[in-house]
Amino acid sequence: MFDLSEETLVSDKAEWQSIISDNPAFANIEEIIFEAERFLCTQFPKRRIKKVLFVLPPDADLSLFKYETAKRGRYPNYPPYGFGIMATHLRKDGIEVEILNLNSIVLSACLSSNIMEDFNFDNVWRKALAEKLLKYKPDLVGITCMFTQTHRSLNLVCAEIKTLAPQIPLAVGGVHITNSLTDSNSEDRLIKDLGAEFYFLYECDVAFRHFAEVVNERKPVISLKQVALNINNKLLSFSGRMVPKGDNLNEIPAHDLMNPIELSKSGKVGSYTYLIPEKTRFSTILSNRGCRGQCTFCSVNNFNGLGVRRRSVQSVIGELLMLSNDFGVEHIMWLDDDFFYNQRESMLLLNEIVRKNIDITWDCSNGVIATSINNEMVACATESGCIGINIGLESGNKDILKSVKKPVSVEKFLKAAEVLLKYPQIFTKVFLIIGFPGETYRQLLDTIEVTRCAKLDWHLIQHLQPLPNTQMFGDMLDEGLIEGENFESIRHSTGAYGQVAKKSEKDQDLLSRDFKDAFNVKNLDVVIPKERLDDIWAYMNYHLNYSPLLSENRKEKLKQKLLHLQHIYKVIAPNDAMAMYFAAYLQKKIYGNTNEVLFTMLNETLNKSPQWKKRFEEFNLSVV
Question: Does the residue 248 lie in any domain?
Fold first, then answer.
């Protein structure tokens, strides 16, 4: 037991007071220390952590997982990058670490199966988990969860661990955990569902290492940060922050534990896999953390804190060289939320990729901020291997942009688009959100007009899905527009497991909405009813993405967009007649003829679907 008089405790009494205020059930700091010490001794009788097992749950549970979709390679297979960083930190203290990627294991098993009957989703991950726990015998198991829609999968994995090895302490963390614990409306539900002993908040690569030092009695209990101890379903919280910065940011994650070679065989990363050769090895990398923006619908600031913290260029280049030389990685997706932050540093990094002759391509699927795009920046990006960029516009209405605190204006977005049009090598997608609180038809028409003027390559349109621990979530909760505890209702509209994807699995006809007159209303200044959003989505999808293909004449863009359309009808939404039709149109424009197989597929789809046939007639689309 550490003595409170020791200088190695906390010199700042204000920090003690913060701990006391976080835990009002305790009278003083001595009681808190005593209870925390007692709990740690209960969970770790030998007061040691020598072996840690990190577990990444499947991205979705069985109810969302579709066998045929996985066989097509639609589902993502991201490296557990955060675990890789944490592993590097722990290894420095002599702690052994292993990572069990259940998502990758499930995808790999699915792809290697011949028929659906040979594949049992739950059996695959449960067996892998049981074997690892039995063989490895860790002192602590850590689980992460980034997205709220993964909550049920996380819940199932936690329960299975408790069944298989109830004596092993369980720690959980990640964006979903942080968002839920910092929201009083979801905290109780989270604790009840997961039953973990330790809950970590925010970026915890440094805090988790420090926690291990406390358990191993190298640091005092009072110095714990960013962790809550679950004592009889009541949290004993140590909410002080240990923000990774300086040298801590420059730690290269343990890619040997993440195994990018295997990951590349079983899924995809990012939004641009169709622009690279099929068997290209890929991985992810993070050059900075945080975002300069403060969008009310985004949780980045609440998780990472305000501002942006950069790694050194030398550290990032070292990681890129390792990925390229040791693992044969040829394409990377930047995980950054604000990749072009600080133009000087960004250009220095990209120029160094060229100077070091690192033979990779890359994309920014997470999105970049339009204000950071200029000729010099995009020229560097192109030369260093950029093939795709996503830009977050969200709305083309000035009032909406202001209300959600978007760090871009319509004028700056259009200026960025003007620059990007000069670099056809880069395929550019625009993030759009429909259904903001109070959004009117007229405001949404502004969005359509702005994006038409910009003439960028594709538009990713999604319904608003407010995330916990954001200003917008709180505002909508106060107004009774959403429920605070219902994790199941919080689900992105786009993405492999999103609402649109689920719908496309049911009936591939994503465009069979009555959307032709979606904006034919008497008063454009009324708020759009929620039930009209699907029609409006379909209207925007056709008029912003498909219709412009008829006037596309740039050779490089024709080929890119053909690949994009092929990806839609082969991987994302099989038998999507609209994608097939326009792919055939582009084939004829590029090569002078249409592939017979595609032509046959299109005709078969139209013959089987009266809805598609009706839609084609309405838009005067003929396959003759």
Answer: no
